[in-house]
From TrEMBL:
Higher taxonomy: Bacteria, Bacillati, Actinomycetota, Actinomycetes, Propionibacteriales
Chain ranges passing through the membrane: none
PANTHER family associated with the record: HTH MERR-TYPE DOMAIN-CONTAINING PROTEIN, REDOX-CYCLING DRUG-SENSING TRANSCRIPTIONAL ACTIVATOR SOXR
Ranges of residues in domain HTH merR-type: 19-87
Name assigned to this protein: DNA-binding transcriptional MerR regulator
Cited InterPro entries: DNA-bd_dom_put_sf, MerR-type_HTH_dom, MerR_fam
Gene3D superfamilies named among the record's database cross-references: 1.10.1660.10
Top-rank lineage group of the source organism: Bacteria
A Pfam family of this chain: MerR_1
Alphabetically ordered keywords of this record: DNA-binding
Single GO MF annotation: DNA binding
PROSITE patterns registered for this protein in UniProt: HTH_MERR_2
Protein's organism: Kribbella italica
């Protein structure tokens, strides 16, 4: 079986796979690399590092960065924006976990 036919997980489906370089991430977001560094310093996103030490970002991190840019553009301070985003992310995760538990414990439909 060739790798193209493999049924295992792929990085295409992995929202947390660090696929994007800093330059590409900044380009996709319409920001500067300095903006991404500031989010790293603020502890909103912590990019993984390549073997050469370069920052690499995941799609999930890019969504958080895009939300930060949106809040900053609306006049929210960086520290407040980071707190808002972290709370939004935690809420979304809790809602997903809650839905999974609900689906697992739903009684089977009656015929």
């Amino acid at each position: 079986m060739s790798s193209a036919q493999s049924t295992g997980p792929t990085h295409f489906d992995d929202d947390d796979y660090p696929a994007y370089t800093m330059g590409r991430a900044a380009e996709m977001l319409g920001t500067t690399p300095g903006f991404l560094r500031s989010l790293d310093e603020a502890k909103l996103i912590t990019p993984q590092r390549s073997d050469g030490g370069h920052r690499r970002y995941s799609r999930h991190q890019l969504r958080l960065a895009a939300r930060a840019r949106e809040l900053l553009d609306q006049g929210t301070a960086l520290d407040a924006a980071c707190r808002i985003i972290l709370l939004e992310d935690q809420l979304a995760e809790a809602l997903r976990a809650n839905e999974e538990l609900r689906e697992r414990h739903e009684p089977p439909p009656r015929n």
